Amino acid sequence: MRLADSELWVVSKEDLTLSKLEWARESMSARQLNGVENLIASGCDEAYLRAWSAALILTDMVTRVLP
């Protein structure tokens, strides 16, 4: 995406969620898990999260936070 003379990268909510889950798994950070729960509460593509969590070996983490 371009804005004026700058190129910007935008991350999807689902990809941010996966990143936070990976950080939470490594650090066992309650703050990251809380952030994930807040993101998911506002809606998300669960099929995408489930598919990529399997590929990234994060299924256990996704299962913990999805309703």
Textual characterization of the structure:
A hairpin with a 2-residue loop joins strand 1 and strand 2 (6-7). Helix 1 (13-27) runs antiparallel to helix 2 (30-41) and helix 3 runs antiparallel to helix 4. The chain is 66% helix and 6% strand. With 67 residues, it is mostly helical. The mean pLDDT is 90. A two-stranded antiparallel sheet has the order 1-2. The protein is built from four helices and two strands, in the order ββαααα.
**Anisotropy-based shape:** globular
- Say how many strands there are: 2
Structural class: mainly alpha
Q: Please tell me the total number of domains.
A: 1
Can you give me a brief rundown of this structure?
The chain has helices spanning 13-27, 30-41, 46-55, 59-65, and strands at 2-3, 6-7. With 67 residues, the protein is mainly α. A hairpin with a 2-residue loop joins strand 1 (2-3) and strand 2.
Strand-helix topology:
Elements: E1 2-3, E2 6-7, H1 13-27, H2 30-41, H3 46-55, H4 59-65
Antiparallel strand pairs: 1-2
Features:
single chain, two-stranded antiparallel sheet
